[in-house]
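task queued by scheduler; priority normal; single chain, no ligands, no partner chains; default sampling; output format set to structure tokens
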Amino acid sequence: MATKQPTAKLEPRIPKPAMGSVTPSARKWLGGPKRSAPGADYAAHRQSGRLWTQHLRATLLKLGFRQCYTDSCIYVRGSGADLTLVGVYVDDLLVTGASEAKVDKFYTDMSVLDVKNLGMVSKFLGMAISYDEERWYRLEQRQTIEELQQRFGLAEANPVRAPVSDDQDGEDDGELLPNSGGGAPANPTVRLFQSLVGSLLWVARRTRLDIALAVHRVTRTSHAPREADWRRAKRIARYLNGIIDLKLCLEGARATPIETGVRIEGYSDADYAADREDRTSVSGGMLYMDDMILGWFCKKQTSVAPSTKEAEFVAW
């Protein structure tokens, strides 16, 4: 999508000093809000991201869309047979509707922003998306994982059958990783470790819930990682290398919610006293709609549970 920058007020980035603390010739550079030049490119201004978000939101609201309360990146227009949904990521939009006519109407309405229709989605935010006549959608991140393996020198590493190992819990943690240095996989630094963990976290949150717990464990040491933490993070990447083609399968609805209703189910569990330092537990859970997974989570509990029963209650 490409568009020109609208006229918008911009907040000053430098606070005004007290009178008399600057010379009169310098005071003109510390003025109040200014307007962006109409027709200027968004990329030419520091607040381009904010301007674009405000402009897109105003445009969608004017077209009758409502912004979702729980996720501000989702916009909804109509309901039932008139439903249109728009997912926004900066200037990439994912559009779906109750019918093809609703999607076509969206592009007609959005002609004011010079929107380009790229057709049926095949890739979005690093996820490859495929679908078949039986209404199955399949999401995978093979390319993202391959790039991760190349970037961290793990493309030729031997795969492992599990992202975590019981032997790792009892091993010596080793020395703290240095804050500076070469930054190569053979000589990892804190920055390199954080980069690897961030890449793994992106994969875990999009399509690979099978590594959610393992990634959660290594993220807890990102502030002060040790040599053992680096080995644990590499093991997760090696696990992905072994089953790189695993896909998240989503089945499309075979009947409208009006006919059958919507069944929402949630499942949760807890790893009691999982943290060896403070004995807090770890919660995990999944949310389904009509047997189709909607999301999952894995996070550390904020208080110490005195029993497995209470840990599972907190997770629920």
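post-processing summary
- Residues 140-242 form one domain.
- The mean pLDDT is 84.
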